[in-house]
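cache lookup: miss for this entity combination. No prior model stored, computing from scratch. Input as submitted by user K.M.:
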Amino acid sequence: MAEPLLSVRGLSVDWITADGPVRALDGVSLDVAPGEVLGVAGESGCGKSTLAQAVMRILPPPAVITGGQVIFEGQDLLRLDEPALRAVRWRRVAMVFQAAMDALNPVLTVGQQLADTQRAHEGGPPPTRHAIRDRSAALLELVGIPAGRLDAWPHQLSGGMRQRVGLALALALEPRLLILDEPTTALDVMVEREILQELLELRRRLGFSVLFITHDLGRMLQISDRVAVFYAAQLAELGPAAALRGEARHPYTQALLQASPPVRGPRVERAGIPGMPPSLRTPPPGCRFEPRCPLAEAACRSGTPPLVQVGPGHAAACFRVSGSGR
Amino acid sequence: MSASTRPRAEGWRAWVEAIRRDRAAAAGAAILASFVLLALVGPVFVGDPDALVGIPHQPPSAAHWLGTTGQGQDVLAQTVVGTRISLAIGFGVGLAVVLLGAVVGVVSGYAGGRVDAGLSLLVNVFLVLPGLPLAIVVAAYLPSGPATVALVLVLTGWAWNARVVRAQALALRQRDFVAAAVVSGEGAWRIVLQEILPNMTSLLVAQVIGSTVYAIGAQVGLEFLGLGDVSRATWGTNLYWASNDSALLVGAWWTFVPTGLCVAAVGFGLTMLNSGFDELTNPRLGAERAWRAWLLGRGLSPGRSTPVAVDRG
């Protein structure tokens, strides 16, 4: 793989509560190559959104980044001060939020918000109003909204259109990395599919990388180049989407894939995954998936399994796959 | 582990705890408590404030700790006795103004329609009435005394609170939890009292504190102008007499500085008390307390971006 655009190394995040710190992200390492779509999947509370917000350094209190590095374009974002971060945010790394309806300011028109984004971050001489308007119109058309809607207010747009505006806002400064935090969760599957296809097309044309966060593993395998599966604040498995689709190695990934029925084929009762994810306040002593794992054995209760290579560019954190293989 | 399952302090205990946690609030509470104590028991110890006890305009001495007024009365006695009426009017008016404003505002904002139009008109009429001049006119027509001053201050003070509460009620009414309450069959009064008003607690507490500070200041101002009962010792009439007796001309600073300091100290105490209540009525601020302490313990300060506490070796 070429020099990664984003390289997260051993990133840890703690929530500082009155009863002590709770680890929300535990030593996570992953890379995003230029032009690549990296999917991050997992259950609610597994740390996937925490990862996205930690990269942008926008985690709300009481979160603290307690370890690791976030190397973006050769710079450790964790060492940057406020002005330097501001230069990186949105210009180099942009984000589409889960609730686009809330990310848009209800008292400004779509055009004003697009213009504000361009003005707030432009480096050189300020662009003329005409230039900004032309660019805003182009951005809207880029995401499939007629330029005539520039003067529309957010409440006049449907959920899907607002999410597209969110995407246009994120692309306004031509970032190198786009973080999508469950961008289509609030949309129906038709609109979701449309927007994601548009996104892939834009990525092909503009060449940015995508960190795509979702709890929908099936959808993610369709559109990602590589996929990272999180479980209880840790990385469970990381590998090419094709490899995961065919031969996921971690029992959790396997169970996740088993849980979603294929469109074709015989009707089979889906088992799901029994139990609940562990409390991050009191995680299991050994492998965090052990209490729910069908393959668990004594060794799984005593130590945390390391992430080990199981194939080309494919790693899993499981004792049952790390030994001599199966 | 038991810490997380321990029930949160509720009712007045929660308020006491909030004040104890916050040093500024604790200091403010201590200042206020000492003034309340002074108002309750102080007059027993200092004697008759109206008695002519010495030569006029004597500076502080062993016999008269704060000196004597231009009439030859004891300044300490007048200041202490004045505390009682001044504080009673201040807190009474502060509470009454907020209560009236909250009722009118929340009913107006939640009911909407004609009720809102009528109440808003009333609020607007009171808002455009110039407060202090009206207070002076009303005070001049009614029999002078603390009750008149209180009435005048309530009359001129409630409208702004009502306006703010109405705006807040309008915003809260649209929130999903109110829609959920409507769907679950809660009555209008229950929604107003259980769903909407508790969300305004911090606003209402801030209003009580602000209105009390205003009431004490405005009352002192009215009485200073001679619109109170000048024969009764209050902070305002103390200043009225100090001015009448040319305290500034003869340099008798001790006749007005103690009263002025009292007014300032009560206002200061109330304002500091407010900071502790912010956290109580906003659970999120309380949750950040441990986080802030943790960061400060590592020489970091909370900023706009997520703090990084990584040991670089």
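stored under new cache key. The radius of gyration of chain A is 21 Å.
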